[in-house]
Write a structure and sequence with these properties.
Layout lengths: L2 H4 L4 E4 L8 H8 L11 H15 L6 H4 L29 H12 L6 H10 L2 E6 L5 H12 L6 E6 L2 H14 L8 E5 L2 E3 L6 E5 H10 L6 E6 L7 H18 L17 E6 L4 H7 L4 E5 L6 E6 L6 H15 L4 E5 L3 H15 L8 E7 L5 H5 L9 E7 L12 E6 L2 E8 L7 E8 L2 H9 L7 E5 L3 H6 L14 H9 L15 H13 L11 H8 L4 H10 L5 H11 L13 H8 L8 H18 L2 H10 L4 H20 L12 H14 L4 E4 L5 E3 L5 E4 L12 E9 L3 E8 L2 H14 L1
Parallel strand pairs: 2-8, 2-9, 3-6, 3-7, 4-6, 7-8, 10-17, 11-13, 11-14, 12-13, 14-17, 16-21, 20-22
Antiparallel strand pairs: 1-10, 4-5, 15-16, 18-19, 18-21, 19-20, 21-22
Helix pairs in contact: 6-7, 7-8, 9-10, 12-13, 17-18, 17-19, 19-20, 20-21, 20-26, 21-23, 21-25
The chain binds one DNA strand through helix 9, strand 15, strand 16 and helix 25.
Length: 754
DNA sequence: GAGCACTGC
């Protein structure tokens, strides 16, 4: 093998940011932020707390730190009203498994601070809990609150940005409480709910509780709401945090406030915001300087190496570093973080190529790739145990940063890059998303590093200098500043709220709001005075992008509700329908040709869905799977779309849209479908230009049809599209041909409907 | 001529 391959990238050893075992490390860490272990004794912790608290609210004492925590979790007796909510059969009847769980619980870093923590929450309306990964905060805090009686008779909600987190946490906590899932401990995520009258601790996605706002604006079923992973600043978390501030004001204040005699003083609300990273003060300030409590985590130490000089080619640097690890370091799998699929696939090829030239005495290399667009069976290969005398090398996107934990990782190679979607708002022609490679943030770097220390001590190689690390932003821009607000604004309108008046932690800029309002007006969802129209109220009832709920509402006119539901169900599914395996593109295109509709992607999707439903009705699971595989279709998309469709049918019934009684197929139906979609996508339309590109009808932007589209090569006079995405060029995706004459009248139609 | 990650009673 060429020597250059094994020439190590210049790397500089740095002390660990995670190995907080020694004082030396602690001091270093303090430079960025001081973590106080609630289980730790005074001196170390108090100092930092003082500094922190004086910055925040001037309180120098801390209950968390000032108490000695002799009492363990069984101390229900210390609370006024336990309400039978303690762990069931805690005495005597516990099985060995349950005992082991209790033992584990009491060993968590957070366990020793339990009483102090409860006291803080009892005394404050809002508590900010800053905890490292592995502290146990997400599973334990809700149980502490329940066992202490703080929740009275109400429920404790714990919100999560991701569905899997919500469900698996509920499983875990139900086991710890030694109860059946759905009794005392439950969860609610879209399409899946396990809860009952008995449920006191409920894990839900943030989106779920935001939806719940629409039917219960005061969230009166919950007496404690714990917002977890708040640092991720998802759009829905931000909306929730803003609403909670309002709700708490209404629920906790005496009823004389502003003539709103409805304030329910008998049902006050407590808020706990949990964050894993450095920006706790922002939450604290937002909630009137709420107290911040720190909990140290438990993580195996990870050695961090930074590159001595910046690496121009991060993929090449990653490869050299990998082989450096492979030849010099003890066994253990390697995880490489890369920005996207393209880098992953090309690096995989390079690594495999060079791995073949390894000397015989070196272990062989097994590469796995992981990214969201990849088939799940492929992604899951990373979970297979590494065969003896082999080293696994996993090439992954951000998917492995938070969503998926891969066991056995000892080494992390961090390129310091990721791709991020950013919405570019423009009033004319509508905004569009950009998807560009950029530097990661500090908290993201820490998260990636932490992936090497899940099971034992590890090593992280950062392919950027320490200086570059120091120059990184602390955390990313909140999503609310990076995405289209059309759906959120519509949903808020049904609550009588205007986004621009909402007390948000970060306020989106004017263009983003104006662009969303314009879109909503085009759809007929709001009128000239920005007031919600009856059609808009219908649209908001659907868990869909307003463009698509508008299409559903419009489809009634064309007697084609059913096929439009099929299409929007597929389009709003989280995974793509058409699988893209880079080196089998021609085969995939060939296999899909039978679904392609000359009028474009929307009807192509409809054809595929109908074909699948036919197969699904007649054949076994394995036949179905094979059929999907053969046609390069993602069966998960179909399965999810069927769930979504069922949900949409229910909403249709509720808002008085009749789904039944339409005949399938025919030109008339096709026409109606395109026209319905055209109502929703009127703002997303463009005319053909002489040079073969398209120009927006409502803006000046020149766009191209995405190469993945079924009508990419066709030069049709006018198109509608699902969205625009800027990568190398501005591409329109999800494109259909539409008669020029039609969509000029659409706007007028939408307004009339309004 | 091409694909960061999530989510919705």
């Amino acid at each position: 093998m060429p020597a250059a391959v094994y020439k190590p990238s210049p790397l500089v050893r740095n002390p660990s940011y995670f190995g907080l075992k020694t004082d030396k490390n602690h001091k270093r860490h303090k430079k960025s932020i001081s973590w106080v272990d609630v289980s730790d004794e005074e001196d170390r912790g108090k100092k930092s707390l003082k500094r922190r608290n004086s910055a925040v609210n001037g309180h120098h004492d801390s209950a968390v730190n000032g108490h000695k925590h002799k009492k363990r979790r069984h101390s229900n007796d210390s609370s006024p009203q336990v309400n039978g909510a303690g762990p069931s059969q805690i005495n005597g009847t516990l099985g060995t498994k349950a005992k082991a769980l209790q033992e584990q619980r009491s060993q968590l870093p957070i366990a020793k601070g339990r009483d102090a923590l409860i006291e803080e929450i009892r005394q404050n309306e809002v508590t900010i809990l800053l905890g490292e990964t592995g502290s146990g905060k997400t599973t334990q805090v809700p149980q502490y609150i329940l066992e202490s009686g703080l929740a009275r008779n109400g429920m404790i909600a714990v919100t999560q940005p991701r569905k899997v987190a919500a469900t698996s946490l509920a499983h875990r906590v139900a086991a710890e409480q030694n109860t059946t899932l759905g009794d005392l401990v439950g969860y609610a995520v879209r399409f899946d709910e396990k809860s009952s009258d008995q449920t006191r601790i409920k894990y839900l996605t943030d989106g779920m509780i935001v939806r719940e706002l629409m039917s219960d604006p005061l969230l009166s079923n919950y007496s404690v709401i714990i917002v977890d992973e708040a640092h991720e600043r998802t759009l829905r978390t931000d909306l929730l945090i803003a609403n909670l501030k309002n709700i708490q004001k209404q629920r906790n204040q005496p009823s004389d406030a502003k003539g709103k005699g409805k304030a329910n003083t008998s049902n006050p609300l407590k808020i706990v915001v949990m964050s894993a990273t450095l920006d706790a003060e922002k939450f604290s300030k937002f909630y009137h300087n709420a107290k911040i409590i720190y909990v140290k985590g438990r993580q195996h130490p990870v050695k961090i190496y930074h590159a001595a000089e910046s690496q121009l080619d991060y993929a090449d640097a990653a490869m050299r570093t990998f082989f450096q690890i492979h030849t010099d370091q003890p066994p253990g799998d390697v995880l490489i973080f890369l920005p996207g699929q393209e880098d992953i696939e090309s690096l995989q090829k390079s690594i495999e190529l060079y791995a073949k030239q390894l000397p015989a005495d070196k272990p062989a290399v097994l590469t796995c790739t992981m990214f969201a667009a990849q088939d799940h069976s492929q992604n899951n290969k990373a979970f297979n145990p590494t065969p003896p005398n082999m080293r696994k090398c996993i090439l992954a996107t951000n998917i492995a940063e938070t969503s998926i934990t891969i066991p056995g990782i000892k080494y992390v190679i961090d390129t310091g890059k990721c791709k991020e979607k950013q919405y570019l708002a423009r009033i004319s022609g509508g905004g569009f998303d950009t998807l560009l490679t950029r530097d990661i943030t500090k908290s993201s770097a820490m998260q990636r590093t932490g992936r090497a220390g899940r099971e034992g001590s590890g090593v992280c190689f950062r392919l950027y200098t320490e200086e570059a690390f120091q120059n990184m932003a602390v955390s990313g821009e909140p999503e609310i500043l990076r995405c289209s607000l059309t759906a959120s604004i519509l949903n808020l309108k049904t609550l009588g709220q205007n986004l621009e008046e909402l007390d948000l932690m970060d306020k989106p800029d004017f263009d983003t709001i104006a662009s969303a309002l314009k879109t909503l007006w085009l759809l007929g969802a709001i009128d000239q005075k920005q007031k919600l129209t009856p059609a808009g109220r219908k649209m908001a009832a659907f868990p869909l992008e307003p463009q698509y709920s508008c299409a559903v509402v419009a489809s009634v006119q064309y007697n084609c509700v059913a096929p439009v539901l099929d299409i929007v169900s597929i389009l709003s599914s989280s995974s793509k329908l058409f699988l893209d395996v880079t080196d089998q593109r021609t085969a995939a295109a060939e296999a899909r040709r039978m679904f392609v509709h000359p009028r474009g992607d929307h009807l192509t999707v409809l054809n595929a869905f109908r074909a699948y439903k036919e197969i699904a009705a007649a054949d076994s699971k394995s036949v179905r799977r094979e059929w999907c595989r053969k046609h390069f279709l993602n069966e998960r998309t179909f399965i999810e779309a069927k769930d979504i469709r069922e949900q949409l049918v229910l909403v249709c019934r509720r808002v008085g849209i009749n789904v039944e009684g339409e005949k399938e197929g025919g030109e008339e139906e096709e026409d109606g479908v395109i026209r319905s979609m055209g109502h929703g996508l009127a703002g997303n339309s463009a005319f053909l230009q002489p040079d073969g590109t398209y120009k927006q009808t409502m803006g000046q932007t020149i766009i191209k049809i995405h190469p993945g589209s079924s009508i990419c090569d066709k030069k049709v006079p006018a198109i509608i599209y699902d969205d625009l995405m800027y990568t190398n060029q501005i591409y329109a995706r999800g494109v259909s041909s539409i008669p020029k004459s039609f969509f000029l009248s659409v706007q007028a139609f939408n307004q009339r409907q309004a």
